[in-house]
Amino acid sequence: MEAKKVMLSGIQPSGDLHLGNYLGAIKNWADRAEEFDCYYFMADLHTITVRQDPALLRKRTITQLAQYIACGLDPEKNTLFIQSHVPAHAQLAWVLECYTMFGELSRMTQFKDKSSKHQDNINAGLFTYPSLMAADILLYQPDYVPVGEDQKQHVEITRDIAVRFNNIYGDVFKVPEPYIPKAGARVYGLTTPGDKMSKSVPEGCVFMMDDPAVIAKKFKRAVTDSDREHCVYYDRENKPGVANLMNIYSAVTGKSYEEIEREFDGQGYGVFKPAVGEAVIEMLRPIREETERILADKAYLESVYKAGAERAGRVAFKTLRKVYKKVGFVAP
Ligand code: ATP
Ligand code: LTN
CB within 6 Å of ligand 1 — which residues? Predict the structure, then answer.
């Protein structure tokens, strides 16, 4: 029998998960376990490139695990783990830092963004973040890395690092492909349709644990445009707010833009905005309820992350051992 292809992704538990994270990433992870060997983790090592409140970080990490499960990632079929529980991530990251160039790190959009936002703390970890992310990925030899569009550049640098390493030492790493969804790849903020939905603008950000009344309010207040006719049609450039809502509605319902245009023909934004809100509320409701149920069972969550780290650790260690041997470290 042919071995299953491998899929891997992670999200930083640095904030509460939101609709962008769900539609851009997690939704595309669920239901893949039959076809792929899947690894998903809480990227806690990455979060400390920006200052975190320790108690909150711990809480968010566990909540995120409960949310992964509530979103349909069955821990029996997917390997779910906490990044810091598998030491090979930090170990391989060091090696890969020595195969990552200063120039290429300087060009990373996320580094430029975050260093301008956190000017008082432009630390070395923020700069070398992509080498750690490359380690996260390459340890598991995945075929695909399902992420939102903003992470594409990080998967590309991972590929460059893998190819560079392979060119010197032979075929050590599989060179992975990013896997980016058609609808939902980039969800924009409801109040700032020019920028991606982000927890740093909470009024335009729909959090997965938000109460339905709060979600409804956020959609009612979504920014549209001054089109007098309130026409619902897709024009990203001139009607970014409406385009964003259509993209969300399409990702949630599976309907095409033409179908959505027909559905709301002549109805205006007053009908369209609450309808998108309602669809999102109904999609998130069972996930939120299930998250709350799972969160109450701490012993279960602990058993999941322990088993996950053990499984992940075995696979990761195999790759790390190979890398250590290739670069010339003496076997312990
Ligand atoms: P931010 O800090 O800007 O709120 P985030 O930290 O919540 O973003 P990340 O941890 O950077 O999100 O990303 C987690 C996953 O969710 C990644 O795969 C990323 O591509 C995806 N993602 C994040 N925001 C969006 C968005 N607005 N639209 C689509 N995908 C997104
Ligand atoms: N950089 C990603 C989180 C992340 C990740 C990964 C995603 C860390 N390691 C490995 C995919 C694969 C982010 O900020 N969203």
Answer: 11-12, 14-15, 20-21, 24-25, 147-148, 150-151, 185-187, 196-200
